Amino acid sequence: MTEIEIDLHGIDEKDMSKYAHLKKEREKIIKDASGNPISTHFPLNEMAMKLHPRVQYVKVAEVIHENQDTKSFILVPDTEKGTKALAFFKAGQYISLEVPIENGVYHRPYSLSSSPKDALENKYKITIKKFPHGRVSNYFFDFVQVGDSFSISAPTGTFTYERLRDAQHIIAIVGGSGITPIMSMAEAICDGTLENVFMTILYGAKTEEDILFKERLNEIVSKTSKIKVEYVLSEEKNENYLHGFIRKDLIDQYVEEENSFFLCGPVPMYSYLNEVLKEYNIAKKYIRHGLFKSELDDINYEEYLLTVFTNNKKFTIPCYGNMTLLDAMEKNGVIALSKCHVGECGFCRSKIISGKVKTFVGSNRLKDKSYNYIHPCASYPESDIVLKLPK
Ligand code: FES
Question: What pTM was estimated for this model as a whole?
Fold first, then answer.
């Protein structure tokens, strides 16, 4: 143990008398003060509000038909509703979009596929692929037009490059529409927003038609040597592309001494790649996963009752074993806080008063479990449920 000597020499009670005049000075300052309220406007607070607005109102300025089942939407501020400028973001982040459809109000996370630089010109791009039972994705694909207005969250999410944590070389392994956050990173590397970063994209798609942003990716590759792209088609043999799935022998060709892996695609792709990446013996911090929703092994189609307490109101609605509690609430117009929809952001965290749920592995922190907190976006009912939403 090290002893620290403090020099108390010369300090005694009498010395305090040296400060007696301060009391009088203080009293004078208080007496002479104007009585106006103290300003609460600080440049730092204003900057924080610009970067993290609670809500942003946007309008669709352009719809781009990407392929047979995917469209991109250019969003700009809806100034009539009070949004003057869009918040800046980090490449790889997403926004949560609020969409009223029939009696429900749905929130869905969509990755920004444009460069963060575009946000400075008040433009976001999101890219939405329609899925067979995707209520919001189908609605967007079939009905949303130029001029439609929505509210969205501030950009959020941790699927981003961090200089202090990540290696200089990124290996992005993506499947299908999982390219969207990686596209934003590619744009950011190309325009210099992300400096001194190199990226190899291994992009798996079913057919050539399913490759999103192919022309733009090829253009970026021709502009900068910092980005390489390999396309792998699983359902089409085409001499211009590799055929099959993204396997270890392909990854081996691009692995450098230090790499950060950014994975984004369907759940089976993650299961395979998580096993493959173990063989490289790399620290966990170098492996990042995009948002994904785990699927349950055994689906139960039972009907249950979900009782929700929120803002001094009580709702009782039907809920099925194959739908999350959040999906049931959204479908029935019960407004619940949410952002990521996959048990990651913690925004929907609610207290379960009674009942039994099945949750995705990893979506429930241990402490939450012991205090009966769950994430309704990642919880399926196994009985009638009573739930209390956060204020
Ligand atoms: S919405 Fe993010 S954890 Fe539920």
Answer: 0.84
